[in-house]
Amino acid sequence: MYVCICNAVTEDDVHGCMASGCTTAKAVKAACGFKPGCGLCTKRIHTMVSEYRDSTALADALAGGPHALAAVPEAPLASSPLPAPAQVVHEVGGSAPASSTAA
Fold first, then answer.
1. What is the pTM of this model?
2. Closest CA relative to residue 30, chosen from 18, 38, 47, 40
């Protein structure tokens, strides 16, 4: 959804700026390359930045502080081959179960 029609800036653009370190509406506007326009987007951007800060603070509190992202090590390839799939055996010539009908 567009946050600013005048500058064609979307919510994804604003979220990207905040994820890369912008912590104020002014910083978001500068990072997104805002030019002066009607100004109707300013309140929405302030709200988005405030919500982002609150959610980041909550996540840090729950996790015990900010944690840096780390690369996940690759799992080693299995050296042994996979086991053969099980085979299903059907009996032939047995009697089928009788079906009961309600009368």
1. 0.57
2. 18
